[in-house]
Structure prediction request, 149 residues.
Amino acid sequence: MVFAVAALIIGAALTPVMIDGVKNYKEVKRLQSREFAPPPGAWVRPWLIHKAELMITAEQPWEWHPTDFKFGPCFPGNVAQLPNDEFRTAIRYSCGEFSRIQNAYAIECATTNNCLIPESARGELRAVVAVLDEAFSNAGFVQPVTEEQ
Prediction:
């Protein structure tokens, strides 16, 4: 009888902890899902450019594959949240091109000791970065500099 009462008290005390633990676990899993990322905005361009720069200077396979350009900021649901249509189109294009380039030249960086990325791949990556820069300058995230400034 004493054991049953003790078990009941302990069970009643731990129930809220277990329920909160399950809620927290579900939230952590939601945040870790491939589709989740904070709504992209002005920060998505520097993020993509950083990943492109890693690929341009890649010497190891992990540098050639710094991310999957189909999820996170590149996930269609996240790109759709961008306020500017031209910038949204440029981000979609850039994500698609980075993914295509990454896959097209993957064999050049398949070994574990080094990557032999051809200059043509680097040129393609730089061209995509130029598209991002152009779209960002026209997106209205930054006020243009005037002569008085």
